[in-house]
Each structure stands twice: as structure tokens, then as C-alpha cells.
């Protein structure tokens, strides 16, 4: 897998686990460095440093400024589509993408998400994906059976611990 300069910058930006957690926090909401620091239990300076790295790599965008105690605080947010599966897990995504390239019927679906959602939404999505996996298994036929296509499915869904 060839990674251009933008890809290298993104990989470097994601080389720290705090930055991955920040992307999760910034999905669906814009936050200041102080808010990120409180959520993650890190210093304001540390949060600012990591946010600057994510911003410079293009993985997050500026979402405005607000006056706080006589100063200006920048708000940042993550825009879906900027953070690709290849950036999240280069080896696994690279191999899955390689295997899917040039296949009849399209490349399939590959995605990565670590997001905060309402419990009802989580249960609904989890149950629909579980049902789809059940349907795939129920529909499976012997290898090479006439009228079948060979497919690959990998799914990992789980509720995470609240890091606070």
C-alpha cells in the first residue's frame, strides 16, 4: 500500500492513542481544548498539543471560536470521511482493500467508527448487523456451488468502557 505525504501525516497524527480517543470525542460535536482535556482527564496543554497535530494532518477541522475569560478558544470537530479505515488500521485495512479491489460487484463495505451514541441506537444497529450475519450464514452454500459468489465478512462490534 503506497502512502502519500498526506497519508504519512495522518498516520503520524494517529500514532498516539490519545489522538484516537480525541477523534471519537469530536465525532458529532465540536469541542475546545479545555473541554477535551476535561473529558479525557489530561492537561489543557496536552490536549492543545494533540489537537494541533490532528488539525495539521487534516483529520479534524476548525469549527469556530468563542470568547472564554478574555481569550479566544478554538473549537474543533471531526468530519466523517477524512478518517479512512486505512488510517485507522493500515495493515488490516490495506489487506482487506487489496483483496476487494477489482472484484465484480464492487469493493464492498469497509468502515471504522468509535462513536458515542444513544443506547437504543446501539441496540438497533447491533441487532441489525447480528441479523445480517445470521442471514449470511443461513444462506451459505457449499464452496463453488453453481450460482454462488465467494465473499468475506469480518465484523467486530462492542460497547466500550467509559474512559472517564
TrEMBL record:
Keyword Transmembrane helix: no
A Gene Ontology molecular function term of the record: DNA-binding transcription factor activity
Name the record gives this protein: HTH arsR-type domain-containing protein
Organism whose genome encodes this protein: Actinoplanes siamensis
The UniProt record lists the keyword Transcription: yes
Membrane-spanning parts: none
Record keywords, A-Z: DNA-binding, Transcription, Transcription regulation
Lineage summary: Bacteria, Bacillati, Actinomycetota, Actinomycetes, Micromonosporales
Domain of life where this protein originates: Bacteria
Segments forming domain HTH arsR-type: 9-94
UniProt xrefs under InterPro entries: ArsR-like_HTH, HTH_ArsR_DNA-bd_dom, Metal_resp_trans_reg, WH-like_DNA-bd_sf, WH_DNA-bd_sf
Pfam families in UniProt: HTH_20 (PF12840)
Amino acid at each position: 500500500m503506497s502512502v502519500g505525504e498526506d497519508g504519512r501525516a495522518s498516520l503520524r497524527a494517529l500514532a498516539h492513542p490519545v489522538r484516537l480517543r480525541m477523534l471519537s470525542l469530536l465525532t458529532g460535536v465540536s469541542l475546545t481544548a479545555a473541554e477535551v482535556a476535561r473529558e479525557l482527564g489530561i492537561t489543557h496543554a496536552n490536549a492543545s498539543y494533540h489537537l494541533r497535530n490532528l488539525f495539521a494532518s487534516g483529520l479534524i477541522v476548525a469549527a469556530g471560536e468563542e470568547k472564554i475569560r478574555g481569550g479566544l478558544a478554538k473549537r474543533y470537530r471531526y468530519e466523517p470521511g477524512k478518517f479512512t479505515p486505512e488510517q485507522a488500521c493500515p495493515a488490516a485495512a490495506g489487506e482487506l482493500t487489496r483483496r476487494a479491489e477489482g472484484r465484480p460487484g464492487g469493493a464492498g463495505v469497509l468502515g471504522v467508527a468509535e462513536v458515542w451514541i444513544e443506547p437504543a441506537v446501539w441496540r438497533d444497529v447491533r441487532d441489525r448487523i447480528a441479523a445480517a450475519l445470521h442471514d449470511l450464514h443461513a444462506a451459505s452454500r457449499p464452496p463453488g456451488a453453481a450460482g454462488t459468489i465467494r465473499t468475506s465478512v469480518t465484523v467486530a462490534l462492542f460497547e466500550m468502557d467509559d474512559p472517564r
